[in-house]
Amino acid sequence: MSVAETQMDLDRITHPLRLAKGSHQPGSGKGCAMKVISYITGDAQVTDFPVCSARPLTVLVQSCNDLLAGSDGYLSPENSLLALELAWQTVGTADVSDTVVHAWLAELLANPIWGVVQYAKISATKAIVAIAELHRRAAAGDMPPIVAWDAADRAARAAAQAMNPTANAAGVYAIRAAYESTALVDTRDYQATLDAVTAFAVRAHTRATEGNTVSRIVEVTRQTIRSWRDLAGLDNPVGRPASVKHKVVLKTVFVPSHRRAGTTTIATTGIVRRSSR
């Protein structure tokens, strides 16, 4: 992390949790990497959705966490380190402007390297790119009218209906991520929309990379987190947009030592905290 020399001690911060697949009740001794972040950043209620982390990025890291679990449902020390490294990169990403979210969604859909558009056929590709362009306009401060979003939504749904889900499941999820994202103009469904779009994007990548799913989802997650941070200016304090409400709080985290042997360690001295906390 660029805002401070950020390190983590995996031996300490996973106490009393052992990283595992799925969501778990308090006191179970199990949890995902995002629950560890919730714990060490001081959330009043420890959950899988830390207050300091953007929900779309949290969903992506949760997917990585689950894919990295072994057949027993637990993550190995090496995979725990990887999941926590990704989770730690989400710290401080929650409080961003709507323009950042729109710009990020445009990349999630149409980025040539990690966007879901790569899995769609020609007609669906056009529909996805059209929706991505609407998000880019919104990110630039030129919010398209509702009629434009509605038209793009209808075109994408029509393209989806013409697709064969058996022959191109990844493409179906890709275009669904696109048309679901048009609902962002309805603020009543804002958070649910972001969760759904992210989940469909993950499914698109998963279906397209069977046999190489884990490494692909990990890399996509790394790219999406980096994109979010770059767009929000989180790693460039001098040029950070005024609309982004972040500041750095250095904090030493003292947590009881974890007694399980053979745990991998790295180091922790500082975290990024939301200004509202």
Secondary structure topology:
Blueprint: H1 10-13, E1 18-19, E2 30-31, H2 33-40, H3 55-67, H4 77-88, H5 98-110, H6 122-139, H7 146-161, H8 169-181, H9 190-208, H10 213-232, E3 246-249, E4 271-274
Parallel strand pairs: 1-2
Antiparallel strand pairs: 3-4
Helix pairs in contact: 2-4, 3-4, 3-9, 3-10, 5-6, 5-10, 6-7, 6-8, 7-8, 8-9, 9-10
Unreliable runs, pLDDT <50, ≥5 residues?
1-15, 238-277
- Find the structural class using helix and strand composition: mainly alpha
The overall number of domains is 2
Oligomer: single chain
The level of helicity is 40-55%
Shape: globular
- What value does the Rg take, in angstroms? 19 Å
> What does the largest sheet look like?
2 strands, parallel
Number of strands: 4
- Bin the strand percentage: under 5%
Spatial order of strands in the largest sheet: 1-2
SSE pattern, N- to C-terminal:
HEEHHHHHHHHHEE
Average pLDDT over all residues = 81
Count of individual helical segments: 10
Distance between the termini: 20 Å
Notes on the structure:
The protein is globular and about 50 Å long. The longest helix is centred in the C-terminal third of the chain and has 20 residues, at 213-232. It has two domains: 10-94 and 235-274, no CATH class; 98-208, no CATH class. The chain has ten helices and four strands. The chain has a two-stranded parallel ribbon. Strands 3-4 form a two-stranded antiparallel sheet. It starts with 9 loop residues before the first helix and ends with a strand. The chain has helices spanning 10-13, 33-40, 55-67, 77-88, 98-110, 122-139, 146-161, 169-181, 190-208, 213-232; strands at 18-19, 30-31, 246-249, 271-274. With 277 residues, the chain is mostly helical. Mean pLDDT is 81; it is low at 1-15 and 238-277. Helix 3 (55-67) runs parallel beside helix 9 (190-208) and helix 6 (122-139) packs antiparallel against helix 7.
